[in-house]
Amino acid sequence: MMYSTALSLTLPSLTSDHRQHLLEKQPLLSLYEVLATLPDPRSKHGLRYELAYLLTCLVAGLLCNCDSTLAIAEWCRDQRLLLIQLFGPRRFLCPSASLYRILLPRLDAEHIEWTLADWIRSTLCAQADDPIALDGKTVRGARTDEHAAPHLLSFRTHHSQETLLQVAVSEKTNEIPVAQALLPCLPLAGRVCTADALHTQKDFMQCVNALGGKSLLTVKNNQPTLYADLATYFADPHASFQQDATLDQHRGRIEKRCIRVSTEMNAYLKDWPLVEQVAELTRTVTVRKTGKTSQEVVYLITPLTPAEANPCRLLALVRGHWSIENSSHYVRDVTFGEDRSRLRTGSAPQILAALRNLALTLIHRSGSSLVAATRRHFASHPRHAFRLLLPKRFTQQ
Fold first, then answer.
1. pLDDT digits (tens, 9 = 90+) for 298-322
2. Which residues of 33-162 form beta strands (DSSP E)?
3. Collapsing DSSP states into helix, strand and coil, what is residue 324?
4. Cα 194 versus chain centre, distance
């Protein structure tokens, strides 16, 4: 029986030009094959595991309910026979937690993020009109005495819930210029882009419009003049508007959303020439157990015309925007234990966040919206997890 030491299964070492050509011309490559295009910073002398193998096992472990590199290393040992079946007999099958702790900080996080983004975009499952939400998240558990916690900006589709791209926001800047610089890299044509109040900027709206998309932006006190104008208009008892409302009951809370939409402010808002509708959104939340009620009022602006988005659709777009917070950032913290991770060195927190985003994308692509239950299923049937990562010829043996 022959054993291999870090023998690549599919792709040899590639130059940067070859990698780019492969990603552009072969959009249906498996994720394992795409990971094989990443540059490996390690010396080839004594190399026991190829990089694609290590990253594939890492993502498979995340899918199979492992939250730490230690848990993933133990899981690999438990799945030794399956790894032999999938990857063939080899001398080294089970990477250790210390290997991941040493390797991940050495990898190029930006290169990994963009490689994953290219693959996700080329294999996108989202419908052509699926809106895109953007939002930032601070990886609080990665803060050290010397460095602030990294802040990551993500772009995610509303309905298919696929993370299109994630980038780190430097301490020397903020989300606003970073988001605007990245908009041309997204498939915005024919889509609505939603963002929180931080991105309610004329340049943002104009950039999305120039790329063939539309935006829906929240107005708060960071735009004091615009906020005051909208608040004054909707406080007028003679204001003209259309309205709609939704009522949701879940997790012991009753949440009512009421929206009032008008086109009467379009001519007045000369500084915002693209605006076709403005809206007032009132959220009223009642906690059943205590009976306590809270209310929040925000305002919205959008270039969407009434024919393109009636009050009902605007409500759906606002609610869809918060899926990036509730179904991605919250899930990474609670279900994947992101903020409990002890891996804080270099770019490791960003890389792990990118791979958690990837795991979430793969779970949603599998047809499930129950992330925790799906991870438990994969833990019991790990071959099913590898089917999302490997070429079919490996998993159909």
1. 999 999 999 999 999 999 999 999 8
2. 132-138, 151-157
3. helix
4. 14
> What single letter denotes the amino acid at residue 127?
Q
Instruction: Read off the pLDDT of residues 221-241 as tens digits, 9 standing for 90 and up.
Output: 989 999 999 999 999 999 999
Q: What's the confidence (pLDDT) of residue 2? A: 39
User: Is the model's pLDDT at 79 over the cut of 80?
Assistant: yes
Q: What is the pLDDT of residue 142?
A: 76
Nearest 5°: the CA angle 286, 288, 293 is 25
Q: Which pair of tokens denotes residue 288?
A: 């059943």
The answer to whether residue 5 scores a pLDDT higher than 60 is no
In contact, 278 and 301? CB cutoff 8 Å? yes
List phi, psi (to 5°) of 195. -155, 160
β-sheet with 192-195: strand ranges across: 163-169, 151-157, 132-138, 192-195, 214-219, 293-302, 277-287, 253-262, 242-250
Q: Which amino acid is at 294?
A: S
Place of tokens 């270099």: 346
| C-alpha–C-alpha distance, residues 339 and 59, integer Å | 18
